Amino acid sequence: QPRIAPFRRVLLKLSGEGLMGKQAYGLDLEVVQRLAVEIKEVHDTGIELCLVIGGGNIFRGVSRAAGGMDRTSADYMGMLATVMNALAVQNFLEKVGVPTRVQSAIPMATVCEPYVRRRAMRHMEKGRVVIFAAGTGNPFFTTDTAAALRAVEMTCDALLKATQVDGVYDADPKVVPEARRFDDLSYTEVLRRDLRVMDTSAIALARDNGIPILVFSLHQEGALAAIMRGEGAYTLIR
Ligand code: UDP
């Protein structure tokens, strides 16, 4: 018995860290290629898909600000980093035959489309995967919040958050071996227990607009398609 109804349209959040694979920096194109195949699998079933791509593998505003840079400038650099990742993901998706459009929250007319909500909706109706780049377009935000925002704007049935492990744990399972995984959580519980799966503004936005969040492992092959069938291991936040 699936824990959640069949999906019509979903938003997948991929972090920069996820695209980095085992590398210390930048993109692991083998990982990007594998993810493209996994996304295609879901796209082939007729589910409408959009993506929000992070940029932490290239540039993270907060840490640079801590290193002496002006926070707003650093954040703009972080947003530009997400555009690079978006172009890489677009490239690999199109190589496996998935039509895509990149839309940037910071207009860059010669590189990709600007973000236009109604146009993004239309692309998805036509079977294109829309890749949202440049986060929210504002400094002091994260791509997690951008993911929650776009999921609401696109009237998605769920926000799929790909992480390093197969759900939300009560402690870091890489550090605490006996950490327990939650099957289900409420938004409020995530906030109250300070479970750092997404930042609080993202959780609050999802909560206020009733968007369920499914947290699953980026490393488990076939996990994305399994979740879309209502199978596999993941934490459901709603
Ligand atoms: N960023 C921003 N506004 C946004 C989204 C992102 O300023 O709406 C900047 C911020 O500096 C952030 C960087 O872009 O550190 C990369 O995004 P994020 O850290 O969310 O990427 P991820 O952790 O998913 O790789």
From TrEMBL:
Gene Ontology cellular component terms for the protein in this record: cytoplasm
An MF annotation (GO) of this entry: ATP binding
Record has S-adenosyl-L-methionine as a keyword: no
UniProt: ATP binding residues: K13, L14, S15, G16, G56, R60, T163, Q164, Y169, D172
Limits of the Aspartate/glutamate/uridylate kinase domain: 9-217
Catalytic function, reaction form: UMP + ATP = UDP + ADP
Residues at which UMP binds: G55, D75, T136, G137, N138, P139, F140, F141, T142, T143
GO annotation terms (biological process): 'de novo' CTP biosynthetic process; UDP biosynthetic process
Inhibition and activation profile: Inhibited by UTP.
SUPFAM superfamilies documented for this protein: Carbamate kinase-like
E.C. number(s) listed in UniProt: 2.7.4.22
Keywords in alphabetical order: ATP-binding, Cytoplasm, Kinase, Nucleotide-binding, Pyrimidine biosynthesis, Transferase
Pathway recorded for this protein: Pyrimidine metabolism; CTP biosynthesis via de novo pathway; UDP from UMP (UMPK route): step 1/1
Principal place of residence: cytoplasm
PANTHER family hit by this protein: URIDYLATE KINASE (PTHR42833), URIDYLATE KINASE PUMPKIN, CHLOROPLASTIC (PTHR42833:SF4)
Function recorded in the entry: Catalyzes the reversible phosphorylation of UMP to UDP.
NCBIfam families, per the entry: pyrH_bact
Self-association and partners: Homohexamer.
Homology family: Belongs to the UMP kinase family.
HAMAP family (UniProt xref): PyrH_B
Protein name from the UniProt record: Uridylate kinase
